[in-house]
From TrEMBL:
GO cellular component, as recorded: cytosol
GO biological process: L-arginine deiminase pathway
Keywords: Kinase, Transferase
A Pfam cross-reference name: AA_kinase
Ranges where the Aspartate/glutamate/uridylate kinase domain occurs: 4-284
NCBIfam families: PRK12352.1
Name of this protein: Carbamate kinase
Taxonomy of the source species: Bacteria, Bacillati, Actinomycetota, Actinomycetes, Streptosporangiales
Family: Belongs to the carbamate kinase family.
GO molecular function: carbamate kinase activity
Length: 301
């Protein structure tokens, strides 16, 4: 009997191992990822996919900025919508199973403090000198292990507005791509109308909300490491295989998972299970099949 799954695809499913986001690298990475996803659909699972867009949305924003004297630049939420279309098209072309892409909006709160504290890295890495120059244009940049990256606001996802449409397609047998890049962030005005806002929603947190919204039995967060590790980078490092939400929450609160990498994945897995989801799995993309049967990854119940 197949399961209803939401699978969040990490950057390694979209770009080359070095993070390169050339069209060739993106196409090759998506084709490799869709072999795993196609196997799950062929085995009878209902599969809803979501994906990251950090490198792509940052590159688009930069192109807009560079070409601003020639064509009017578009805002960040437009760039996010464009990445849903581009990455969604690559996924459609790579899958042999009937599939559909839903342009998806994610409701966020206009008063979310995240708008005052940009933390979400987007685009490619730059040198400090280049980052400092761009900071003078009003942008926020932070240093990461591999260099400097622009950071933007990443508010909490409150509702995946187009989840019902995505679920209807899932019920009809399609593999569905939804809430790509965390969904296009929108706020509701006092007049009840929706408008886009300049932000990038975390795709793992959006995936957890999407999985809850469509009644998925499992949330699978596919990344480039086999599992979550307690005490990562220390002599006491310990891979986590089977765990409970209560145990994992304690480790998370104790700071075992890095803020910009494993932290959001663990938080997403926890939110799904703490709100009644049967299980969440954090696994390597190559282990997707084994992760569904419980023989790979970090399984949270
Ligand atoms: N939107 C988002 O979280 O994208 P990345 O996973 O690529 O950072």
């Amino acid at each position: 009997m197949g399961e209803r799954l939401v699978i969040a695809l990490g950057g390694n499913a979209m770009t080359a191992p070095d993070g390169s986001a050339s069209p060739q690298d993106q196409r090759a990475a998506v084709e490799a990822a869709m072999k795993h996803v196609g196997s799950l659909a062929a085995a009878g699972h209902q599969v809803m996919l979501t994906h990251g867009n950090g490198p792509q949305v940052g590159n688009l924003l930069l192109k807009n900025q560079i070409a601003a004297d020639v064509v009017p630049p578009v805002p960040l939420d437009w760039c996010g919508a464009q990445t849903q279309g581009t990455i969604g098209t690559l996924i459609l072309n790579a899958l042999t199973h009937p599939a559909a892409v839903v342009v998806t909006r994610t409701l966020v709160d206009a008063a979310d403090p995240a708008f005052e504290d940009p933390v979400k890295p987007i685009g490619r890495y730059f040198t400090e000198q280049e980052a400092r120059r761009l900071e003078r244009l009003g942008q926020t940049w932070r240093r990461f292990e591999r260099g400097w990256r622009r950071v933007v606001a990443s508010p909490e996802p409150r509702e995946i507005l187009d989840a019902p449409a995505a679920a209807a397609l899932l019920d009809r047998g399609y593999v569905v791509v939804a809430a790509g890049g965390g969904g296009v962030p929108v706020v509701r005005g006092t007049d009840g109308r929706l408008r886009g806002v300049e932000a990038v929603v975390d795709k793992d947190l959006a995936a957890a909300l999407l999985a809850r919204s469509i009644g998925a039995s499992a949330l699978v967060i596919a990344t480039d490491v086999p599992c979550a590790v307690a005490g990562y980078g220390t002599p006491a490092a310990r891979p986590i295989r089977e765990t409970t939400a209560a145990e994992l929450r304690l480790l998370h609160a104790a700071g075992h998972f890095a803020r910009g990498s494993m932290g959001p994945k663990v938080e997403a897995a926890l939110r799904f299970v703490e709100h009644g989801g049967a299980r969440a799995v954090i696994c390597s993309l190559d282990d997707l099949g084994a992760a569904i049967t419980g023989t790979a990854g970090t399984v949270v119940r």
